[in-house]
Structure formats: C-alpha cells, structure tokens
Amino acid sequence: MLYIILAILMFGLLIAVHEFGHFSVAKLCGVRVNEFSIGMGPLLLHKQGKETEYSLRLLPIGGFCAMEGEDETSDDPRAFGNAAGWKRFLILIAGAAFNFLLGLLIMLCVYSTVQSYVTPQISGFMEGNPCDSEEYLQEGDIIYSINGSRVLVYSDVTILFGMNSGDTMEMTVLRDGEKIHFDALPLTLREYTVDGETVTKYGLYFSTAEASPLDRIQLGFASTVDCVRQVWWSLKMLINGQAGFSDLSGPIGIVDSMAQVGEASASTADALLNLLYFAGFIAINLAVMNLLPIPALDGGRVFFLLVNGVLTLVIHRQIPAKYEGIVHAVGMVLLLALMLAVAVQDVWRIVAQ
Fold it and tell me: Rounded to an integer, what distance in angstroms lies between the CA atom of residue 291 and that of residue 303?
C-alpha cells in the first residue's frame, strides 16, 4: 500500500509540474491565469491572489492551469488567444519542457549514486554461440548500433534485441577504434546451458566498469535521450504491429507498475531509487507524448499555431477558430474514450493477476 500511495503522489506531481510550466510561462508572458490548481476534483483549500485563484483539490492526480481565453474567445487583451503567436507557442510547450527538465534532473540524481554499470562491450560468449568466430563477433567488441539504431547505454542492447523479429540482425561494432558492420548477424534467442541450467538467451556476456563522476553525468544524459527514443520505438512498434492495444497502459497501470517495482526491490532504499527512476522515465515520456501533433494535446495546439502562422504569411488568412475548436473537441472525446478503454484494461489486468 505504501508504494501505491508513493506512486500516486509521484504521478500526480509529474502532472502538476506540467501545469506549473504552463502557469509560470503564462505569467511571464503577461497572460491572465484565472486559476492554478494542484490536484483535481473537489476543492479543499483556495486563496484568491491579485488575479489568480490558487487551489488545492482532493485527488492528487495532477492539476490544471485555467488561462483566460484559452478555449473560448475573450475581449481581455491579456487573454491567451489575444497573445502574440510566439508567446502562445512558449506557453504551450512549457508544460512538456518542465516535464523534460524534471526527468533529466531525476536521471542525473539517480545515476549520481551509481558505483558501477554494465557497458555494451562484449566480454564473452556462451558455449555454442554461432557468432563467436573470427567471421563475426569478438571479445572486446563494443556494440555501436543495432538495426540502424545507435546504442547509447547497455539497456539499448536489450531493447533493440527484443525489437528484432528476424533470424538475423544488422549490427555495427567498434573494434580497436574501427567500425565493423554486419548486414546479417545470426544472433537470435537460443537455448544455452549455463551452470547446469538451460536458459534462453542471445548468448553474450557484457563487461562492467567503475563509474567515475563524468560517467555518472554521461549516463544520466544518455538515459534521458534514451527515454525519448523509447517513445518513438514504441510508436513504431504500434504502427508495424509488433505491439498492440493490450500493450498500452494508462495512469492506473503506470501506478500499479511503479508499486510492483517498489515491492520487488531488495530494500527500501532500492525501492525509492527504482521509483525515482520510473518517475523520471514517465516524466520524459509525458513530455514527448504531449508534443505529438494530436488534437487536444499541447502538440496539436502547437501544430495549429504553426499552420496558422504559415497561412498568415502566405495567404493572410487563418483557420477559423471554431473549426480548430471542433477538431480539438473531437480529439478530446476520442482521447478520453481511449483513456477509458485503457483504464478498464488496466483494472482487468490487475484483478486477473
């Protein structure tokens, strides 16, 4: 129960930080904010500022930043819709930017505690691995890319191996400072015998290294970039059919996964560190997903803002606000329907465990 509560609070904090990004940049740009709320649902506490009502609400699952003229026309010169285009752009991307910066900060904090780490350098082969030959891989090779995707940290190796669907894979390794490319490396999941037990592996061992202060910083930045790439890899898998609806997860599933990570940890300290890493991963995912050009999301609003900017320059006209509003409204309905379906699936998955 403790880890479920922590997971809910962490997830709520990520959403609240997102909304605070919109709020703070709106204030800096002179846009009127009618209400800024931490939490959702019934009102617990509130204080009326000079122009903004600050609220604390019951459900710790996010928050909101209600700007004047955000979803309707307003005669207020400080309304969001009446602000200069560049100001609206900054306000719209601010939520994702704050989530990304928070995710980066979390990753740097998590990796600041690392004493050693696994590298993508091959240190040995399991007996019978067909790639253990002069024709293919050698000990000391550093995996540089797999199927065209750059390997930044060791976890990329695991992910990219799992995304490979054929009997061979394309790989580039660094050997004595030189790039060696393999178009069809016969590296697939096979059964190997390790310490008398049969295991299904790719048959490679990887080296570990002591983490210097510079390594810790590099790992933090690399993992942040990696989280961004994992969003694109996930979208690619959804498009090509490698992943489906059953692989999607919403807030309920995320909280449950975070709780499981905490409960499976060896100690309370490990649990907090693992939860922190998970929170950083989700923060970066929220940043990227929110900027996708999907109606109702910030990215959809940015898309219309840019399109209208181009149309203004070319034909001195813009898409009528009512049509943009219809697109966002339909997008919101579809998005809510998807979220409801995913939530039902998450609950069913939890109950069936």
Answer: 9
pLDDT tens digits, residue range 317-334?
888 878 888 888 888 888
Fill in the amino acid letter for 286. L
Contact 13, 275 (CB under 8 A): no
Angle subtended at Cα 351 by Cα 349 and Cα 353, rounded to the nearest 5 degrees: 70
CB–CB of 33/66 below 8 Å? yes
User: Using an 8 Å Cβ cutoff, are 91 and 22 in contact?
Assistant: yes
Cα separation values, 240 from 148, 218, 233, 236, 297, Å: 17, 32, 11, 6, 24
| Residue range 60-80: mean pLDDT, rounded | 83
User: Alpha helices of 116-250 — where are they, by DSSP H?
Assistant: 154-163, 213-240
* Euclidean distance between CA atoms 163 and 229, whole angstroms: 13
pLDDT in tens, 100-129: 999 999 999 999 989 999 999 999 999 889
Catalytic residue among 19, 68, 70, 324: 19
* pTM (two decimals): 0.87
Decide if 19 is catalytic: yes
Would you say 187 and 131 are in contact if contact means Cβ atoms under 8 Å apart? yes
Helices 321-352 and 298-315: angle between axes, nearest 10 degrees: 160
Residue whose entry in the numeric block shows the structure tokens 């009446």: 82
Q: Region 238-245: what's the mean pLDDT? A: 74
What per-residue confidence (pLDDT) applies to 56?
87
Q: Which of 16, 17, 19 is nearest to 60 (CA)?
A: 16
Q: Is 290 exposed, middle or buried (0-12, 13-18, 19+ CB in 10 A)?
A: buried
Amino acid (1-letter code) at residue 23: F
For residue 291, what are the CA distances in angstroms to 101, 288, 298?
Answer: 14, 5, 6
> Whose structure tokens read 């009997």?
167
- The residues facing 201 across adjacent strands are 190
Q: DSSP assignment, residue 216?
A: H
Sign of the four-CA dihedral 139, 164, 277, 174: positive
